[in-house]
Amino acid sequence: MEVRILDARIHEWGLPDYQTAGSAAIDLFACLDTTIEVDPQAPAVLIPSGIALSFDDFSFAGLVLPRSGQGHKRGLVLGNSTGLIDPDYTGEILISTWNRNPPGSDPILIQPGERIAQMIFVPVIRPAFTVVDSFSRSTARAAGGFGSTGA
Asked: For the whole model, what pTM was predicted?
């Protein structure tokens, strides 16, 4: 995979990498010029990551996820829950940040260079669809869902 560094500070902060031998995802930095405030329950704020990727392989994609400590300790999560980076997208990775804390809470301060999200790479399966009037196989769970099997 090729990575373009769009913000030179990434060289100082650290190139995209896994923080430990067992890390499943790379951390993404907040490439900001100044500290910003993300107010509780306000609309999500897009923050540049300073990088762009070229997958060169359409069999996997990137998922941008919140960092668990940021979400649990500070309430900083993603405005879109999970960000999908399609393998044909080559623009800058943007991080949709949202302050999930209740109104009246303090804003979350995001510093330039702070690790605010992470990206994991996952395989993509793209089946071909065949339109049918009825399925060739049936299961015991043809309908239901949304808790239909009980608590």
From this structure: 0.89
What letter would DSSP give residue 83? Answer: E
Dist CA 71 CA 24 (whole Å): 17
Q: Is position 94 within any domain?
A: yes
Nearest alpha carbon to residue 71 among 24, 34, 104, 38: 38
pLDDT digits over 67-95, tens only?
999 999 999 999 999 999 999 999 999 99
Total domains, the chain = 1
User: What is the tens place of the pLDDT at every residue in 4-42?
Assistant: 999 999 999 999 899 999 999 999 999 999 999 999 999
The DSSP letter of residue 147 is S
Domain containing residue 67: 2-123
